[in-house]
Amino acid sequence: MNVSHLLPTLPARRAPASPPAKAAPAPSPAPKQRDAFFDNAKYLAIVLVAMGHAWEPLRGGSRAASALYMTVYTFHMPAFILISGYFSRNFDLRPDRLKRLITGVAVPYVLFEVAYTFFKRWADDDPSYPISLLDPWYLTWFLIALFVWRLTTPLWRIARWPVALALTIAALAACSPNIGDDLDLQRVLQFLPFFVLGLHLRPEHFRMVRRRGVRLLSVPVVAATVVFAYWAVPRMNPAWFYRRDSAQELGAPWWVGTVMTFALFGCSMVLTVCFLAWVPRRRMWFTALGAGTLYGYLLHGFLAKGSRFWDWYDHPWPHRPLGEIAVTAVAVAVVTALCAPPVQRAFRFAMEPRMEWAFRRRDG
Q1: How far, CA to CA in Å, does 61 sit from each of 20, 240, 317, 322?
Q2: How far apart are CA 144 and CA 270, in angstroms?
Q3: pLDDT at residue 31, rounded to an integer
Q4: pLDDT of amino acid 117
Q5: Which of 51, 218, 314, 351 would be 274's cystine partner, CB 3.0–4.6 Å?
Q6: Model pLDDT for residues 130-140, shown as the tens digit of each residue
Q7: What pLDDT score was predicted for residue 23?
Q8: pLDDT on residue 60
Q9: Per residue in 149-202, pLDDT tens?
């Protein structure tokens, strides 16, 4: 007899539920690729800065060295400042960017200003030389200038004619002897147009200067500039290129400051275009050094100034042709080494301190 229909129906056993699958972690964003062109440009610009500092003591006995010095000083800092402005385009007053401005610019300024002061006291046998954060010494002016320029970036982004306004301010500074030396304000204002122009450049502008026609035209332009500089050596005060004095302080009428502001801006921009036209676009052996140019800039100053304090140029050999070539090669080698990653790691505590203890933690 089939009694299966009388048995209670048992519920079917369920297979044990599998644990919910964990969501796959979101892939971390790939690190932003650095543009080889700009790293190359920054490295080559800082090499020219070091070469110019090495040539400075040679100018008295060599008209050719003076001509090269004037040519390089026409555009090496303008090019560097232009690129600094280009990479400051997105700067605003967001807390993280202000923090980066303090740790990457203000703190290195304080540390290197103090370090340079103690170095001068020791190397120049001047123990009473004062520490003054209001009077930048030697190369530290660029840091205080960059600090001021970046803080004013939001203003330049809303101005209707920003470059024209910056040029007007620079021209007024060039004929205003009462500005004084606090924070090297003359340089801050007279170099301002290059930073403001960089803020408003776009990638296509840099692609335009790298055209083959621009490269070919740049060769005769630079050659003509060197010839003109050779002619101008005994006729022109190179202090105009430093932009740290007004026209009156350089012994010229006030209106010459205005004329020289616009003339030097035009010449600097022409030579900057010529320089950028020949900067390699692909990765080179020195491309990685472009990330350490500020290290090379600030650290090579100790050797540049020490060479004067210790009278290295008093020997006649550096003033001979082979000596001038050797001095140039040493300057290139030194600043190249100081931009290298091991040096960056060694001095990151001063150039890029984290300083988490100094800032409030952001909620969320």
Answers
A1: 82, 21, 12, 14
A2: 26
A3: 52
A4: 95
A5: 218
A6: 988 999 989 99
A7: 47
A8: 84
A9: 999 999 999 999 999 999 999 999 999 999 988 899 999 999 999 999 999 999
What per-residue confidence (pLDDT) applies to 361?
79
Please give, one letter per residue, the 3-state secondary structure of the chain: CCCHHHCCCCCCCCCCCCCCCCCCCCCCCCCCCCCHHHHHHHHHHHHHHHHHHHHHHHHHHCHHHHHHHHHHHHHHHHHHHHHHHHCCCCCCCCHHHHHHHHHHHHHHHHHHHHHHHHHHHHHCCCCCCCCCCCCCCHHHHHHHHHHHHHHCHHHHHHCCCHHHHHHHHHHHHHCCHHHCCHHHHHHHHHCHHHHHHHHCCCHHHHHHHCCHHHHHHHHHHHHHHHHHHHHHCCCCCHHHHCCCCCCHHHCCCHHHHHHHHHHHHHHHHHHHHHHHHCCCCCCCCCHHHHHHHHHHHHHHHHHHHHHHHCCHHHCCHHHCHHHHHHHHHHHHHHHHHHCCHHHHHHHHHHHCCCCHHHCCCCCC
Length of the chain: 364
Reported pTM: 0.88
Specify whether the CB–CB gap between 215 and 278 falls below 8 A: yes
Cα separation, 193 vs 171, whole angstroms: 10
CA angle 135, 139, 144 (to 5 degrees): 55
Tokens, residue 281: 């676009």
Spell out, as residue ranges, where the chain has pLDDT lower than 50: 1-18, 21-24, 26, 28-30, 364
